[in-house]
Design brief:
CATH superfamily of the largest domain in chain A: Aldolase class I
Number of strands of chain A: 13
Distance between the termini of chain A: 34 Å
CATH topology of the largest domain in chain A: TIM Barrel
Number of helices of chain B: 33
Distance between the termini of chain B: 8 Å
Radius of gyration of chain B: 26 Å
Strand order of the largest sheet of chain B: 6-7-8-9-17-16
CATH architecture of the largest domain in chain A: Alpha-Beta Barrel
Strand content of chain A: 15-25%
Structural class of chain A: alpha/beta
CATH class of the largest domain in chain A: Alpha Beta
Shape of chain A: globular
Oligomer: heterodimer
Radius of gyration of chain A: 20 Å
Number of helices of chain A: 11
Largest sheet of chain A: 9 strands, mixed
Chain lengths: ~300, ~800
Amino acid sequence: MTKGMIFNIQRFSVHDGPGIRTTIFFKGCPLSCRWCANPESNHSGAELLHTPASCIGCQSCAAACPQGAITFPEGMFCYDASLCKGCFACAAQCPTHALTIEGSWYTVPELLAEIGKDDAFYEKSGGGVTLSGGEPLLQRDFARELLKTLKEKGYHTNIETTGYVETEYLESILPFLDLIYMDFKHPDSREHEKKTGVPNQRILENLAWLLKREVPLVVRIPVIPHFNHSPETARQYGKILSEIGASKVHLLPFHQFGQGKWRALGRSYDYEKEKALHEEDVAEMAAILGSFGLQVQING
Amino acid sequence: MNYFGEPSKRIARMREELLSTEPQVCVERAVYTTEAYKKHKDKMKILQRAYAIENTLKHMTIFIEEGGLLAGNQASVNRAAPIFPEYAIDWVVEELDLWEKRDGDAFSISEENKQVIRDIAPFWEGQTLKDKGLALMPPLARKCYDLGIIKVEGNITAGDGHLAVNYEKLLKKGLKGIRSEALAAKEKLRCSDYHDLKKLYFYDAILILVDASIAFAHRYGDLAEQLAKECEDAGRRAELLRLAQVCRRVPEHPAESFYEAVQSVWFLQLILQIESNGHSLSFGRFDQFMYPYYQRDVERGSISDAEALELLENLWLKTFTINKIRSNSHTKFSAGSPLYQNVCIGGQLSGGRDAVNPLSFLVLKSIGQLKLTQPNLSVRYHKGISNEFMYNCIQMIRLGFGMPSFNSDEIIIDQFIDKGVAPEDAVNYSSIGCIEVSIPGKFGLRCSGMNFLNFPRILMIALNQGVDVTSGEKLYDTPVHFRDMTSFDQVWQAWVDTVKFFTPLSVTLDNCADYALELEVPDSLCSALVDDCIGRGKHLKEGGAVYDFIGPLQVGIANLGDSLAAIKKLVFEEKRITPGELWDTLMSNYENENGWRVRQMLLHDAPKYGNDDDYVDQLTADAYQVFIDEIAKYHNTRYGRGPIGGGYFPGTSSISANVPQGAGLCATPDGRKNWEPLAEGCSPSHSADVNGPTAVFKSVSKLPTLKLNGGVLLNQKLTPQSLKEDRDIQKLILMLRTFFDVLKGYHVQYNVVDRETLLDAQKHPENHRDLIVRVAGYSAFFNVLSTETQNDIIERTEHVL
C-alpha cells in the first residue's frame, strides 16, 4: 500500500479553507523558499528537530547516537546532520521530547482514521481536509490516492500547492478537489528563482490553466519584506493575475513563526532579523490588487 | 474599544468607586442577630432566626449611593462582608487578626469591631451550625473530614445557597401575595396534630420575615424622601422621590413597571443574602421573567433603552456590592471571595422556540459594559439560538473577563427529564452559581456543591492498601499493595473497591451537614419563595421543594484518568517501569535517582485525557462511571418527604477546589508533583491537551454527560488574535454548535489569554504546552516560537484587548 511522509496532522485548522478543517502536512518540496515557515517540510525524508525550550541538557541523545553526530559543547545541544545516518535512536531516548522526528509514514486508512475524528466539526462548519506541506503533490501517488478516497467519502477537499508540478498531474487530481490554494510568490521569474530556487514560469502556466477549470482557485501571495512587499510588485501581480482571470487573492503577511524551527533544524535562516508584517503593512498592496478587480483577503 | 460601549457617566463613576473600595468586615448583622437570639432564647430555632433577620433589617445602617437609582445594601458600607455567627464563630475569632494579612481575599476590620466579635463570641460557643455538624459526624466520617479527603467545611460553616427563587411569582403577586398564602395555610392548621403544629412556626417565621422585608423597603422609602428634601439638584430630587415611591410599592405589591421589577428583585436578592450567607444565590432566567415589565414600559413609551440600561447596570453594581468572608482554609476552595450570583439568559421557551428577546441583548450589553466579576453571566445555548446572539456572546468573551459561559439545552433538558423532572419545568431550567443548573423557584437548596471528593487521593489510597499517603492514616484495607501488583486488573479492582468505600462516607458527611442545617438554620423567607414549601408547610431542608437533588463534586477527573492510563501502559503493557520503582519515585516526589526521567516518561509517553485518545478517555470515563453508579444508590435527607428526587447526582463544578485538593496530595502517576493543583472540573490537566480544542471537546464528550447533572465544567483558552476577524468568530460559533448539538456537551467557558499569561509562557514554557498559535498554512505551539516572535505576539495582544 502506498505510504505518505507526513510531518503534521493539524486539527482545528481555521485558516486553510472554509470551515473547521484538518490540515495534513506533506514532507518534501521542490521549492526552497528562504522564508519558509515550515522549514522541516523541505526535505523529503524524516529528520531530526530539536526544541531548545524543552531540552534539559541531559545528554541522553548524545549517549544514544552511534555516529557521534550529537555533542554538547559548553552544555549546548549541537547536531551535525552530515554524520547522521537517520536511526533516530537519539529521539527515542530523549525524555522530554525535545528531540523529535519530523515526518512519519502513513497509509491512507491511517490518515482517514485521524481525519475522521473531527467529522462532526467539518459537517457543521462546512469544513473538511486540506493538503499542505511542503508540496503535497511531490508525493504524487499518495496524494492522489488520499484525495480520491476523501472525495469518495464526501469530504470537502482543498490543497495548498506551490503549483510546481506537471499540468497532466494536476489534471488527474482535479476531479477530487473542491478548492485550490495556489501560491504565487513573485511575478518576476528571476526574482522568484532567487529566493525559491525555481523560476515561476511553470507555476504561472499551471495557474492560467487551472483558472480555466471549474474548481475554484485562490491565489495566495506570501508578502515577504525586500522581496515582493512593494506597491510596484502589487501592480505587477495585479496586471498578471487579472490577465489570466484570477479573482480571489489572499495576502499572507510575512511572520516569524518559522524562526524557531530553522534554529531547531540547525539551519541558517536569512530572515533572522526581519520583523513580522501585519495587516496594516500590506493594506496598500491589497488596495492596489483591489483596483485590478481582484477580491483580496488579508490572512487566510 | 469595548464592543458594548461605555456606561453612562453616573454608572462609570459608581463602578469606579466600588472597584476602589477595600473590602471590610461589617459586624452589624452579627450584633443584631445575637441580640435577637438572646431575646428569643426560649423560641424554636426557626423563629429565633426569623426574629434575628427582622432585628437586623430593622436596625442595620442603610444608605443610598450618590446618584444611585436603586436601594438596598447588605452591610454598613459597600463591599463589606457581614458576619453570620450562627453558622460558625470559631474561625471568625481565630482569624480576626489575620484577615488583613491574607495573600488573597484580604478584609480589613477595625480594632473596635474585633472587640465586638470577641464580645459576642462566647454566646455562640457550642451553639453554631459547625459545632452541631461536627458533633453529628460518626467517627470514620469525621476522620475523612479531618484529613480533608472529603471536604464539607463549606456546608457546615455557611448557608446553602445554590438556588434561584421564584422571582416571577414575587413580581406577579408581591410579598403581599406570599403573605396571604402563608396566612391562609396557617389558618387551616389543626394544632392538635403534631405535623400541623410544626408547620405553625414555619408560617409564623414567614409572616415575620415578609413584614420585616416590607418594612425594610419602607425604611429606604423614608430615606429617599429625606435625601430628596435635602437635595438641591432638581433632577436628582425627582429621582429620589421616584425611588421613594418605588420602595413604598415593592416588594410588597406586584411590580407595575420595569423599575419596580428591578427594585423588587434586588430587595429580595439582597434580603435572602442577609438571611443566609449561602453563596450562588442566583437570579434565574432574568431575561424571561423581567421581559414583560420591560416590554410593557417600552410599548407605552415610559422607558428608553438608555434608562433601562442604567437600571440594569445599577442592579449589577448592587450585585457586586455583596461580599462574603470565608475561613482561611475555605477561601482556597473559593478564591476571589466569589458569590456566584448567576444571571441566566437565552435558552428556549416550551415548544422549543428561541427565548432570546430584546432584554437578553440588553443584559449582555449592560454586563459587557461593566466587566465586573459579579454577576456571573450564563447563556443557555440551544440549536435554535441565533447567530446574531452568539456573535454578541463571543464579542463579550473577547473582552477577556471569562463571561458568558455556555450551558447547553441540548443535554441539560434531557438530564432533568431523565431524573423525573416534568418536561415543562425542565425546559425552564436555569444556571446556578457557576455552571450548575436547577429549576428556578421549584428546586431545593444546593443543587450542586455538597462535598468535594478528591479522586486522585482516593486512587493513591487504593494503591497504598488503604493508607492515606498524606497523613499516613489507615482508612481501608485492600488485599495487595501497588508494589506487589502484577496486573492492571488489580489496580482497577483496588480503585473500584476504594471509591465504593468512600462514597457512603461522603453521603454520611452530607447528611450530617444537611441534618444540622435543617435543625439549626432554616431559611424561611427563601423557602417561602420556592414552590411548594408554603403548600406543604415545610421549609426547604424539610422537603418543601418540588424537586430536590444534590450534587457532590468530584475533583481531579483528568488526573485520575491520566494516572490510570500511565500505570496501565507504562507499567503493565510496556513494562518500562516496575510498580515498585514507580511507587518509590512518586513517594520521593521524583527526587530519587532517575526520578526526573520517570516523570518525563509519565508526562510524555503516556496518553493524556483531552487529546481525543480513546485509550485514556475511555479509562477516565470508566473510572468515573464506578462512582456514578455507586452514588446513584444513595439519598439525601429529603428523600421520601415530599420532593421528586431526593437523590444525588454527580458533578464537576468544583470551582477552585482543584488547588487546595492538590495541595494536600503527593505526586501522582500522571507526572504531577507533590502539592501541585489538580485539573479543573472536567478540563484536561494543565497544558496536557496538545491537539487543539476539537480534540478536547471530543474527550470531554466521552464522559457520561447525561448522568452528570451536577455539571461538566470545561475551561478553554483562546488567544485574542484567534478572534480578531469576524470569520474567526463565525468558526468559533460553529465549533460550539458542533460541541453542543452533535457531541452533546454540557458547558464551556473561555479564558482569553492575556499578556501576563503569554509572558509567563515565555518564562515557563513547560507550563504552557497547550498554547497554540495558528496562521494560514502553519501552526505551532507558542513555546517553540523564538523569543522575538513571542514578543511580537505579546505586543499585539495588548493591542487587541
